[in-house]
Structure formats: C-alpha cells, structure tokens
Amino acid sequence: MTTEPTHADEYEHGHEHGHGHGPGPEYEIYDLVGVGIGPFNLSLAALSDGTPGLRTLFLDAKPAFSWHPGLLMEGTVLQVPFLADLVTMADPTSPWSYLNYLREHDRMFPFFFSERFHIPRREYDHYCRWVAEHLPSCRFDARVTEVEWDERREVFAVTHRSAGGVVSHVRARQLVLGVGTNPVVPEPLHPLLTPAHAGRVLHSADYRTHRALLAGLDDVTVVGAGQSGAEVALDLLRHQDGSGAGGPYVRWLARTPAFAPMEYSKIGLEHFTPDYIRYFRALPEERREELVREQWQLYKGVSEETLAEIHDELYERSIGGTEPRAALHPGVVLVAAEPERAGTDAGTGTGTDDSGGGYLLTCRHTEQDALFEVRTSAIVAATGYAATRPAFLDTMAKLVDWDDQGRYRIDGDYRVALDASVSGALYVQNAELHTHGIGAPDLTLGAWRAATILNAVAGRTVLRVPERAAWTTFGAPAARVPESGAPVVWPS
C-alpha cells in the first residue's frame, strides 16, 4: 500500500505521485543520484563528499550496507591490497580512507604490527559500512522502482519505495548505476532452485546462510574454480573432524583446465590500469569478447595462499595412509542434474543421507570427452556473477542505445549512449566488462573509475587522474613511417 510521506519529507518528496509531468510542487533536484550502494558507488559518494557546487544522493534497497555477506567467513581476505579502498587510489588525503578508518577505531597499531597488505574481508565490509553510515548522501531502505526522463524539466525522475511502502520521488540531472551483479547458476541447476531444495542447491553467495546445514551432510559438491569456489571447498574441508568420518565428503568440480592461481605478478597486474582500459576499448568488439574469455586467470583464478591451504588440509588428512575425503576435478562441465529419492547413498560418502533426497549429476570431462555421474547430497554453485539490466530502467529502455547483445554502449567516462533527446547523462559502474575489460569488477580500479565519473559529472577536474600508470606498452608502439625500402624506426 502506498502511503503519503511525512511532513519532514515534503520538501524533497512533495505530494505528487506522478512522473514529473503536469502541475505539482517541484521536487528537490540533485546534480547526481546514484542507484545502488556497493563499494563502487560508495567510492563515488565518498570522493564527491564536500565537492563544492555538487549535490549528490545515493539510494539502496538494503536496510544497511553489506558486501557479499554469504562469503564473509573467518580467515578470508581481499585479493587486492588495502590501498585499493574506496578513495586512496584517487585521493589519499580523503577522510574516508581505510587508514583513517583504522585510526578512528584505534586499530592503527594492531594493523601495523600485523604487517598485512591484504586485509580480512570482514573488516573491509565493516570499513565500508562505517563510511556509508557517516556519509549524509547515502540513503538505505530506498528501493528504486522506476526511472524516467522528464524532457520538459531535463532531469531524470527517480521513484523509490521504502520497505514500509512509502513512495518517494527525487530528480537528478545525472544518474549513475552501481546496482552490482547477480549470481549466475549453471543452466542444469535452474530447475532445482526452488524452496524444496533450499539450502541444498544454492549459489555461493548464500553459502554462509546454509553453512551449518551443509557441514552436516555426507557429501557436498562445489562447482566453480574461482576464489569463491576455493574458499567454500576449504571451509567444508575444515568441517571434517580428522577422523575420516565426520563432516562432508568434499568434491570440487571446475570447468577450467586446472585449479590455477590468479595472475599476480607485478607486470601482469598492469592489466588493471587505465592504460590497459584505453588499449582494450580501442580493439574491435569481436577481439574484446575473445580476450575476456582468454584472460580468465587474470581475474577468475584463485589466490596462491588459498590453494596452498587446501593442499595443506589434504596433506594433513592423508597422514598414516588415510585417503582424504575429497576429490578435485578440473576440466569438467556440468551437463545435467536431477533429484534422487531420500535414502540413496550420496557420492563416496560413508553413510546414507537421511535428511532428504540427494542429487544425481551428469558431468563431462572436456579433454577426454567422457561422461560420468556423481551422486551428492548438496550442490554449491560458485559460478560467478553477471551484470543485468535493472527492471527500473524498463520505462526508459527505448532511450538507451543498446548494442547487438542488449548491453550498454559505454564511453571512456563510463557514460551510457542515450537518445539525442536526453540531455542528462547516465553512467554505470561494473557493467562494462564488454567495453572496458577485466578491470570492471576489480576493486583496484574502483576509486580511479569513480574519480573519472566525478570529473565528468562536475564538468571539471575535481580529482586529477594519471595519464599513465603502467610500464607496459599495450599494443604496437607508434612508429615513424619510413621512406621506401628504409627500416622501421621505433621511438626510444
């Protein structure tokens, strides 16, 4: 049910519940409204805080900030150094840096003595929550339900609703979408994503919620070779009691040809720089698509530390000739999945799963082109995330210049191509993998991208961004055109 706003909200929301057409009080107009408050839009909110002449508002449906709560297990760490916080890579003097967070929480000395470069995920989540709670531009419990272009006023009309049903409206000259990505589950598992299989067939994003249930089963299969899959497999191994009987049998399946470490060499990391983004953007679309698939180890690999910990757990369980209750299968694709009756033996587990039916998985080893079957009590799909078009954009979808695959066309300032009738600008964060490359979801580039958007929104240089950040020259170097028959001369 829609209710009227309170008196305190009248200045911003008024009482007009239409879409900005016709008479009614003028709603407050912001220079920039952000939809979604994950790390990337929170970075933009932090960097724009206090910018003269710029009024911003950021909206999120959640009651408070949270970052991948289903994977915040003890002992897990960020895969990027702490300097890749919300602001430091663009403005190290900002009060919203991770170092200032430590100072405000009297943790500077413990952090210094810990000699950490990669910080706990749980602390990163707490740091972001601290920033979000202190920024006046961040508003939670505000689910955006509709965005329209108000041509007469030349603003975006944004409608949002609270969990209690209160509908509110704001207007924005410019809009930035930071709505994040959605979990991706292999197609064979789609029929099993029902309440009847809750907690037993799930995406890794919900792992922590069902962690105790999974730890009590006979056999759990983890699908996916990235960091999330590795962390889930490791956590399940640690639930084994060492006697060879307690805890689940852990099976780890991966489409990739190996359980490979993420590329983390100093030169290799230069793929996560503005230099590489400029190079990537200039490539033909077909080559960009190929590169994203080929470069999986740059952004979908597993940290060497996590792989080492898994190996250590298996080594520990093999002492005295005991066979570890685990199996690792790379180069495997899930072909089909179906439920089995309760009481069926699951996998290579030692008992019968009497808490419900198990599952029969049909898998294919890609290199051998061989099919095999697996019986298991539960399936955790650690199969990543993908950007999708938010439903609230449906009302102005015809004004967006989509590419042939229904994705945004995005320029160097992260501005979406819109119809010529729209004078306002629409920006996106972490929806540009196809146009900007593998750095799109990486926290390393978060503050730089936010600063780039901030400068474009403000129409001036609010924060200086580097022209060059890599030693690597991506692409062929510029050469002087030689005279006929003379050798090519490269610049020194």
Please tell me about this protein's structure.
With 492 residues, this protein is α/β, with parallel strands linked by helices. The protein has helices at 10-13, 39-48, 98-104, 108-114, 121-134, 211-215, 227-238, 274-281, 285-294, 296-299, 304-317, 433-436, 446-458, and strands spanning 29-35, 56-59, 138-139, 143-150, 155-161, 167-177, 182-183, 201-203, 219-223, 249-253, 326-329, 332-342, 357-365, 370-376, 378-381, 385-386, 425-428. Strands 1, 2, 3, 4, 5, 6 and 17 form a 7-stranded mixed sheet that branches. Helix 2 (39-48) crosses helix 13 (446-458) and helix 7 (227-238) runs parallel beside helix 11. The radius of gyration is 25 Å and the shape is globular.
- Estimate the helix proportion, in percent: 10-25%
Characterize the largest beta sheet: strand count, sense, and whether it forms a barrel: 7 strands, mixed
How much of the polypeptide forms β-strand, as a percent range? Answer: 15-25%
Structural class: alpha/beta
What's the number of extended β-strand segments?
A: 17
Oligomerization state of this entry?
single chain
Query: Which regions have little confidence, pLDDT < 50, spanning 5+ residues?
Result: 1-25, 344-355
Topology:
Layout: H1 10-13, E1 29-35, H2 39-48, E2 56-59, H3 98-104, H4 108-114, H5 121-134, E3 138-139, E4 143-150, E5 155-161, E6 167-177, E7 182-183, E8 201-203, H6 211-215, E9 219-223, H7 227-238, E10 249-253, H8 274-281, H9 285-294, H10 296-299, H11 304-317, E11 326-329, E12 332-342, E13 357-365, E14 370-376, E15 378-381, E16 385-386, E17 425-428, H12 433-436, H13 446-458
Parallel strand pairs: 1-2, 1-6, 2-3, 6-17, 8-15, 9-10, 9-15, 10-11
Antiparallel strand pairs: 4-5, 5-6, 7-16, 12-13, 13-14
Helix pairs in contact: 2-13, 7-11
